[in-house]
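# step 3/5: fold
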Amino acid sequence: MKWAEVRQLYPNQFVKVKALSSHIENDQEFIEEVAVIKPVPDELATKELLKSKGDELVYHTAHENIILEVRQDVGLRRFDYNENQI
């Protein structure tokens, strides 16, 4: 389902969706097709987002498009404290 259709069916509220198709441009992911999992009450939106896995997300239908920032994985560097001792 297109995001515009979701916005018409669930006006001015949070919905939990599964991203079905998207494309990436300039470090932004544009979600094109979604499957609606369920509407989410405002007071539970953060809790639902934290429970989401993989390509599931909670988004508000006030937004015209679903655009996510793509972040590069930043690895942690292990420092050996004995490495620099003389």
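# step 4/5: annotate
The chain has a mean pLDDT of 88.
# step 5/5: archive (pending)
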